């Protein structure tokens, strides 16, 4: 089964829905803050993918410097 066949997988609500494409193997990179209330995890924020532009800038800069010895 190719990764690109994964669409809207959310692990029964424990993670943001993930759709894997040829361009995005990470599935969107969303996260949220949750808190344990003694019985279950309670979401404190909505799903977000903040600062992706900053993250990708760092990844690109780092990968340009990478060399194999």
From TrEMBL:
Q: Can you say what this protein is called?
A: Uncharacterized protein
Source domain of life: Bacteria
Organism classification, top ranks? Bacteria, Pseudomonadati, Pseudomonadota, Alphaproteobacteria, Rhodobacterales
Q: Which organism is it from?
A: Pseudosulfitobacter pseudonitzschiae
């Amino acid at each position: 089964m190719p990764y690109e066949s994964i669409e809207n997988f959310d692990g029964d609500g424990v993670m943001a829905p993930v759709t894997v494409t040829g361009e995005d193997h990470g599935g969107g990179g969303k996260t949220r803050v949750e808190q344990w209330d003694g019985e279950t995890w309670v979401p404190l924020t909505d799903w977000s993918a903040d600062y992706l532009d900053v993250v990708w800038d760092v990844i690109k800069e780092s990968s340009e410097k990478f060399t194999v010895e």
